Structures are given as C-alpha cells and as structure tokens.
Amino acid sequence: MSTLPPCPACNSEYTYEDGTNLVCPECAHEWSATDNEAAGDDTKVIKDSVGNVLQDGDTITVIKDLKVKGSSLVVKVGTKVKGIRLVDGDHDIDCKIDGIGAMKLKSEFVRKV
C-alpha cells in the first residue's frame, strides 16, 4: 500500500515519486513532494480596494468613474452592482450593470457594500 498522497488534479491513487516531484500517471500532473500540503490550496483570494474579501453574489460600489472601452458610456462613481461573479484574469469581477449591460471590472476599482 502506498503512503503517497493522491493526485490533487484528478484524485488518482496511483502517484509515484520522480526525484523530488510526485507524478500522476493518469493525468500527467506533477507537483513538489515538499509542497504536498499546499497542493490542494489553489483558491485565489480576491479583495476590493480597501482589503475586504469578495465572494460570488456580493454587492459592490464603483469608487472611480470608469470609461467603457469602445463606447462613449461611463460607469459613474457610486454605481451599485449586485450579484457579482468572480473569475480568473486581469478583470476578475464579472457583472451586469443597469443601463450598460454585462462587463468585467477590476477589483481595485470597487468597494464591498
């Protein structure tokens, strides 16, 4: 019976050591054997402009006038946005703003309500 941890990517129990790394033969995922405690902690914490942790479904307020690229529209300071969704990338908030529509915002320009 193996005492190696399962693969963090696919939970396969057939992991093996390759030097200082652990390898999964089923999905070819490799990770460091010394960092196997932190391997499952891949969640990124997204914070607003004042350091509050944001979560899906939160309500936020825009803290700066933001020009909408490719349009003459502007998201005014103080605009409230309900039901945000957090995504990966440079613009890490996906939302729908009344009067403008769906758009992505950077977390550095918003404050949690």
UniProtKB/TrEMBL annotation:
Pfam families noted in UniProt: YjdM (PF03831), Zn_Ribbon_YjdM (PF08274)
InterPro entries: YjdM, YjdM_C, YjdM_N
Keywords of the record: Hydrolase
Signal peptide as annotated in the record: none
Annotated Protein YjdM C-terminal domain residues: 46-113
Domain Protein YjdM N-terminal as annotated: residue spans: 3-32
SUPFAM superfamilies: Prokaryotic SH3-related domain (SSF82057), Zinc beta-ribbon (SSF57783)
The keyword Hydrolase is annotated on this UniProt entry: yes
One GO MF term: hydrolase activity
Entry's family note: Belongs to the YjdM family.
This protein's name: Protein YjdM
